[in-house]
Request: fold
Amino acid sequence: MMDEVLGQIRNIIKEQKRILTDKADLYSYSYDASFGVHLPDIVVQPKSAQEVTHIMKLANKHLIPVYPRGQGTSLSGGPLPVKGGIVLDFSKWDDKLEIDREDMVAIVSPGVLTSNINDAAMEQGFIYPPDPSSSHVSTIGGNLAENSGGPRGLKYGVTKDYVIGLEVVTPEGEIIRTGGRTVKNVTGYDLTKLIVGSEGTLGIITEATLRLYPKPQGNQTLMAVFDEMADSGKAITNILSAGILPAKLELMDNASITAVEAYEPLGLPTDAEALILIELDGHPAAIADESERVRQVCEAADAKEVIIAANEQEAENLWKARKLVSPAIVREKPTKISEDATVPRSKIPAMFQRLKEIKEKYQVDLVVFGHAGDGNLHPNIIADKRDKDEMQRVEQAVEGIFQAAIELGGTLSGEHGIGTLKAPFMEMELGEVGLDMMKRIKQSWDPNHILNPGKIFPEPGQKLVLSDG
Amino acid sequence: MGSARLAYEETFDCVQCGYCLPACPTYITMEKETHSPRGRINLVKMAAEGNITFSELEGPINLCLGCRACEVVCPTNVQYGKILESAKEVLLEEKGRRSFFQEFVFGKVFPNKKLLRAAGAGISIYQKFGMQQVARKTKAITLLPEPMRSFEAILPETQGIGKRAKFYPAAADHPVYKIGYFTGCMMDAMFSSINTKAIKLLQAAGCEVTVLDEQTCCGALQSHSGHTKVTKELAKRNVAAFEAYDLDYMVNSIGGCGAMLVEYDQLFSEEDGKWKERAEKFSRKNVDISVILSELELPFKHEINKVVTYQPSCHLSNVQKRTEEPVKLLKSTPGIQYVELPHQHMCCGSAGIYNLINYEASMDILDEKMKHVGALKRKPDMMITTNPGCHLQMKLGVEREGQTDEIEVVHLVELLAVSCGIDT
Ligand SMILES: Cc1cc2nc3c(=O)[nH]c(=O)nc-3n(C[C@H](O)[C@H](O)[C@H](O)COP(=O)(O)OP(=O)(O)OC[C@H]3O[C@@H](n4cnc5c(N)ncnc54)[C@H](O)[C@@H]3O)c2cc1C
Ligand code: SF4
Ligand code: SF4
Reply:
């Protein structure tokens, strides 16, 4: 049957080089940045909504699974072709990137890299605020499907706060347009927001209209160092309750500070329990005033040192510490399990305590850093996936992290999505009925269950698996 | 099974984050994951696990430039170079000694100075007697395959070697550094005057320079095509040559050779006994000419009032990690107006002999590079290079764009020599 389908795909796609069937090619689309290797039967690189509709109609007729894929940087298994079938690689469809100054929007094709949108906006005096750390590699299609966010989320929100219109190909192969070019729009159900964050299970995004913001006139970076984790938590809360909303507010624990210092000596305080990095943006006069107040708040919370960057170069150096966390922590062992369980801001100290217990109980190398300002901590476990025994402990520790987050009123995932990886824990957070309502939405959009199957919803008996194979 | 092994363990360092994708020239031009660093690393792993065959691995590996731009951006320090070389070695062994041509060129011609000189002299005779003109006019050239034809058109006027001295005393009484000069084989066959100018620049900056007679080919081309045994032999000869002298540095003006020389230590393991230590010492002493010259004072005499841009050699930037020194030298040259080339760290597609073996793929990459040159707001009068391979490729790029009269392609050493009034 696949041969017949392939024959028809050859009629749909004009350039044959956009259809990949060699074994080396198939293996090259069998993974993402999470775990597992799953071989697709065919990879297609569509470049128009027409091509996508034809493929979806064909797939419905033959009941073949279809998986949208951006650049495969998902940390949750989103684009993995777990049941074989067709992978649609959208990363090469990046021809449209229009900035409309009057409407203050960007109109983009799905494969445009997110940082290119921000760069193009900056040239016209705007910014596109969502800034996942992967924004220079990941596609806007992937960002929309995962509702990605980054450090600037604290002040500016995440991807969903910037998308006002979409062109979508439904699982049954029809083209629809949701939303439009206006910030205000209450006509009917908000399908735009339903598609955003649906992880490619409800529709395929073929074009997006995104809001832009005026570019802030200036920014200022500060670093505050603490002897006690609890003090840093207090400082964070007090900064925000003093009416200051930083653009970024990031935290590093002692394990990440020492790892970075061992990796590249920057003169970080390795005896400190925690440090926070703050970026303020806005009018230069306002941020000068705010940075002084941030300093006072931190000192009142027993910060042992507060550094205010004197210029751009110094600011860059301070942020370098945060940037180096990832490479630094994988020096000893190569496998990094990057969790993004998120708790309400007030529960950050409690979450830290729980993480400490988990680390001891399961004897895992756990490092914590991340977007402390919005409760989106990144507990990372460092392991070696060839060590089966260790990986079992890691799996238990990860379950423990999920449990802790939910018990503290938080969520499984702040930004990386559910995919295959966290599907087994959905019911734990949503309850039986909550999950069932989601399933009903899926059922009505995709009656044949062919669009990105095996994601979000757990298969019967599915468990967390972090080893390949 | 032979003795070669895929660097399987090293593939586990890759967390498949994809950060290397935008940096990879072949991912940009060939438009699929299969030709990306992440893809290639995964395929090496898949081949090692027996999921794909060696012949399925071959295409993606052969089409890799080896430019190592992926290593620089990798957040987890994956040793891509090691993985790539291991794959090349295994593939070569699997294929047996099929390619007699490569075997002959890498094993015999390059390491043999005499043969190379003959080749170089051959080119210069060919030029001297106006054969080039005749050949071009009579279209005899069209009989050559396209890659050869393109390069024939841009070949430099070679000088043939011969008159170079063995020892150049320092300009001042006490030499700042005692330097051994590494000439390289391709470089000396085609651009011997650049070597001579480089030596004289070092001399003018206060160094004494010895041209080691005993040196041989660096082994880069052999190594990049999987000929590890030959490479090791060449390395040993160079290490031994260096040890026979009392030198502060070994200096070269060839980004690609320099990269090989600074990685000699990686060729040897504990099994090679003392060689590992000896190679380490040698590697530490090897630097690009820009490193020494940017540290010293050059006797600039003439202003060069030109708009100048620079295409860095990948191996100088990504392996030797020397990105600032050449730019510093450029900016210090009187009269120069330096404009930075956008995406300068993207390979030009030359990559050793990649442009001869994978001509079309290489031209796609070159076209991409020339797009960036075209995008410069101020049109450059000069394109600076730091490696003979890049030099030829950029010349070809300029010619393909029909800009031979507007943009002159010049090695950094040549520019500095002109400004210092050094003539060979
Ligand atoms: C080192 C690293 C750092 C990261 N940092 C962050 C971070 O700070 N914040 C954050 O939120 N995430 C982060 N991520 C996760 C990841 O980069 C994001 O989830 C990103 O949005 C994925 O984009 P992608 O183009 O790679 O999509 P893919 O990984 O290929 O796909 C992701 C999902 O989107 C779907 N999809 C892709 N394109 C379309 C389309 N056109 N229509 C419908 N569905 C589609 C896929 O089916 C899949 O479910 C990080 C990942 C890595 C490896
Ligand atoms: S950047 Fe490094 S770790 Fe990430 S995919 Fe590339 S090689 Fe692998
Ligand atoms: S060496 Fe260059 S061409 Fe090869 S994978 Fe790395 S970046 Fe791509």
Notes: The longest helix of chain A spans residues 388-407.
